[in-house]
Amino acid sequence: MALLDLDPDRLLSTTRAVRKRLDLGRPVADDLIRECVALALQAPSGGNEIVVRFVVVRDRATIRTVGDIYARCWAMSENSPRFVGNLPREGEVLRAQQDRVTSSARYLAEHMGDCPVLVIGCLQGRLDGRDDRGDLGSVLPAMWSFMLPRAPAASAPPGPPST
């Protein structure tokens, strides 16, 4: 699949989520995962210390188990009175946008176990009560960077972004 003609600003300002457009039947090459991990390790980290590790899961039974756990966590979140999808939204446009985001998140919960591979960002070592804010703040930039290297080619054919 050819890369989309999107500069970083256009990509980041128009693509909210591509969960429903992922091709879960397409295999993901180890070289692509290695490339994405290498770039992710260049992300900013708390204290300029690399504490992020990546676990690559290819075992089908393990992926299904992780998917089941994710679906249960999603159900608890979605059924919570504080769930963002249940909060009042002013106006039809904002309500419709929130409904699309909720639908997309629900789709991920229903299909996480169908992914060809899972790459899970983790922290090195155990936290055991120590102040973990800096360490946890290092996982998110790394995962963000992991998703960007090949996101346009892996997400969808050209067309308007959707959730």
Could you walk me through the main structural features you see in this protein, from its secondary elements to its overall organization?
The chain is mainly α. It folds into two domains: 80 residues, 3-Layer(aba) Sandwich (NADH Oxidase); 56 residues, no CATH class. 47% of the residues lie in helices and 7% in strands. The chain contains six helices and two strands, in the order H-H-E-H-H-E-H-H. The protein has a two-stranded antiparallel sheet with strand order 1-2. The two termini are 20 Å apart. The relative contact order is 0.25.
Q: What structural class results from the helix and strand content? A: mainly alpha
Number of domains: 2
Query: If you consult CATH, what is the topology of the largest domain?
Result: NADH Oxidase
- Order of H and E elements: HHEHHEHH
> Looking across the biggest beta sheet, what order are the strands in?
1-2
In CATH, the architecture of the largest domain is 3-Layer(aba) Sandwich
The coarse overall form would be: globular
CATH class of the largest domain: Alpha Beta
Supply the number of helical segments. Answer: 6
At the fourth CATH level, what is the homologous superfamily of the largest domain?
NADH Oxidase
Query: Could you tell me the strand content as a percent range?
Result: 5-15%
By DSSP, the count of extended strands is 2
Helix content: 40-55%
* Unreliable residue stretches: 151-163
Question: How does the SSE layout of this entry go?
Answer:
Blueprint: H1 8-14, H2 30-40, E1 52-57, H3 60-78, H4 92-111, E2 118-123, H5 133-147, H6 151-155
Antiparallel strand pairs: 1-2
